[in-house]
Design a protein that fits this description.
Layout (H helix, E strand, L loop, with lengths): L7 H8 L5 H31 L2 H18 L7 H5 L2 H14 L7 E2 L4 E3 L2 E3 L4 E2 L3 H5 L15 H5 L18 H18 E5 L6 E2 L3 E2 L6 E5 L6
Bound molecules: 2-acetamido-2-deoxy-beta-D-glucopyranose (3 copies).
Amino acid sequence: MDGKESDLIQYHLKNNPSLSMQSICDSVIGLIFATLFNTQISVALAMYFLGQCPKALQQLREEFQQKMNDTGTTGKLTWDDYKNMEFCESVINETLRFGNIVPGLWRKTLSDIDFKGYTIPQGTTVMPNIAAMHLDPSAFENPNIFDPWRWLVMKKSNNWMPFGGGVRQCNGSEIARMEIAVFLRHLILNYNWELDEPDHPIAFPLITFPKDLPIRIHPLVEKTA
Ligand SMILES: *[C@@H]1O[C@H](CO)[C@@H](O)[C@H](O)[C@H]1NC(C)=O
Ligand SMILES: *[C@@H]1O[C@H](CO)[C@@H](O)[C@H](O)[C@H]1NC(C)=O
Ligand SMILES: *[C@@H]1O[C@H](CO)[C@@H](O)[C@H](O)[C@H]1NC(C)=O
């Protein structure tokens, strides 16, 4: 934006006169969902999964501390550190795999497609079920276990597409990952937390916590030897 428009709607109206009103609404609503809802729920899911997996929480805390010790920075996260936090990346990948905040995508075939003996005619709406892919035991061993360590071995997977894929892949994937990492690092270096009441994620149809995941957090006490 060049600064003259004060919001996204004005930006579209001024710069994209060919967009229909519906496309503008899609863009605005999509942005609200993608930036506000998805990142927040990913963070909540990470806190929920880590809360049930103390070993992963411990390893993540150690990685954050280690990076801080190595660079001697007093708490600030540097870009180099961010790009070298392998376990943090694994926790985020696993949270996105297991959490399935985007269960499916809507796509349209632009030409006839042959798929496993079926022909999907041009113009058909196709909904890849991302959650089913992420929980497929032939793609992920013990898919119903939160296991960030699998990423240290696997590195990447063609069956992992929390941000979709192809030309319509989510534009905000990198910033979303970074926001999650920055939040987790600040939280985990400074606090412990526990559930205040039992709660669990449900798909309704998007992922939500019926009680909004009430937690109690405690500052980590600085250990002075
Ligand atoms: C980081 O440094 C602190 C203080 O010297 C030390 O207690 C801690 O064990 C170190 N942590 C790691 C993961 O290296
Ligand atoms: C996490 O997923 C990204 C995107 O596929 C991949 O590039 C990265 O290697 C994965 N991280 C780890 C630690 O496997
Ligand atoms: C974001 O999406 C737009 C429109 O689809 C595309 O032109 C642009 O290259 C994308 N940017 C990134 C960083 O992926």
